[in-house]
Each structure stands twice: as C-alpha cells, then as structure tokens.
Design brief:
Layout: E1 7-10, H1 17-26, E2 32-34, H2 46-51, E3 59-62, E4 65-68, H3 70-81, H4 93-121, H5 127-130, H6 134-147, H7 149-155, H8 169-183, H9 192-200, H10 203-211
Keywords: Transferase
Domain GST N-terminal: 4-85
Domain GST C-terminal: 92-221
C-alpha cells in the first residue's frame, strides 16, 4: 500500500456519492475532490468520459487506478486502506462473508430494486425521463419496507452496528439507504431509528455530509457560428 496515496474522488450531491466521502473520512484519508453532479453535463466531458465511459458518479482515482460504483469504491477503500486502528472490513472468513451478505443485500434489495425504482418513477425525481408511475413507486416502497425486516430482526438484539460491536462499510451503505427512504417518506423499521440516530452522531458522518456538496454545474458553451 502506498503510504501517501494519491486519491481523487469525482462526484458529490447524491446518496451514493456520500458513501465514498464517508469511507474516506472513516479511514482518515486525504483526498482531492471533483464535486461534479449527475445529469449536469459534467459527467459527459471528454476528460471524465476517458476516465469513466459509463459517465456516472462517483468515481475514485487512486493513482493510475480508477474504480466506479459506490459500493465497489467503499469495498476497495475498506480492503486497501483499513488499518488495525481504522478498519471497515472484517478479516475472519465467516465475518467477511456476513459483511458481504449485508453489502449485497443493501445494494441489490434496498437500493437498486426499491429506492432507485422510486427515484426513476417519481414525479419530483426522474419521472420526467423514465415516466411517472405512482403505482410502481408505491409497490417499490412496499417492497423496501418488506425487505427491511432483515434489518429489524438483526438489530433486535441491541447490537450497535450491523456487524455487532464493530462499525463497517456495510453500515455506510445501509445508512445512506435509510436516509434516502426517510427523504422519500417511505418510513423505516422501529429498530432502525435508534441505529440511524446513533450513526448520524458520528463526526465522520457529519463530515461526509458536509463534503458531499456538488459544485455549480458546468455551463454549456455556446456553439460558435
């Protein structure tokens, strides 16, 4: 591992970009920020497209290595830069497997299958692009609440974090989804409320919220006549 990593994070302003900012703060990493936003034209510049042909945020540059997808960025940082003093990933085989299960569950069932479906079809979100569909939004919200039973059961034993006594990057993924669900008026399970309040008090979370602010979008350059 490079003792002084050259890290640049592209992206800010969304529930996914905050994950990468938060992981960096948890690990005590210094990094540069390119606070571009989605659907602003900033992800379609020639410079950014060379780095990420998908034209999505966030994107992490670690020297000459680039990685996209928020959960993958968090997993990479967790594996690459965790230390005994600051660790976001369990090492024991079965603990690591349980961590993977939580990460995959949050990304697949709570984020992509539920919350992002709502985002795509809400009139106040991306419905103007993908079509406003209130019934789809309602069903996605119901599916989110049903899947949150997994969280409700896990937290019923009073554990402070998903992996027990130890905060991990799985908590980063879950918290961003809980924040998102509340913002969308979906509601969250009873045991998740004290969990969320506890995590929101973390100084690293508050720093990530402050860092996750998109800059003004790039102004379109008029074509020369």
């Amino acid at each position: 591992m490079n003792a002084t990593p050259d890290l640049t994070l592209w992206g800010a302003g969304t529930s996914r970009t905050i994950r990468a900012h938060w992981a960096m703060h948890e690990l005590g990493l210094s990094y540069k920020v390119k606070p571009i936003g989605p659907r602003t034209g900033e992800t379609k510049t020639a410079e950014y497209t060379r780095l990420n042909p998908r034209q999505k945020i966030p994107l992490l540059q670690d020297g000459d290595f680039c990685i996209g997808e928020s959960a993958a960025i968090v997993a990479y940082l967790s594996r690459m830069y965790s230390t005994p003093e600051r660790s976001l990933i369990p090492e024991a085989t079965r603990d690591h497997a349980a961590w993977l299960e939580w990460c995959f569950f949050v990304v697949a069932e709570l984020d992509s299958t539920s919350l992002y479906v709502m985002r795509r079809h809400r009139a106040d979100a991306l419905g103007h692009i993908y079509g406003v569909a209130p019934e789809v939004v309602a069903q996605a919200a119901e599916y989110f609440r049903s899947q949150l039973r997994h969280v409700e059961v896990a937290l019923a034993d009073g554990r402070p974090f998903l992996m027990g006594e130890r905060f991990s990057s799985a908590d980063i993924l879950l918290t961003t989804c809980l924040d998102w669900a509340i913002a969308y008026g979906v509601g969250i399970c009873e045991n998740a409320m004290p969990y969320l309040e506890r995590i929101q008090r973390r100084e690293t979370y508050q720093r990530a919220v402050a860092a996750n602010v998109a800059a003004a979008p790039i102004a379109a350059v008029p074509a020369k006549l």
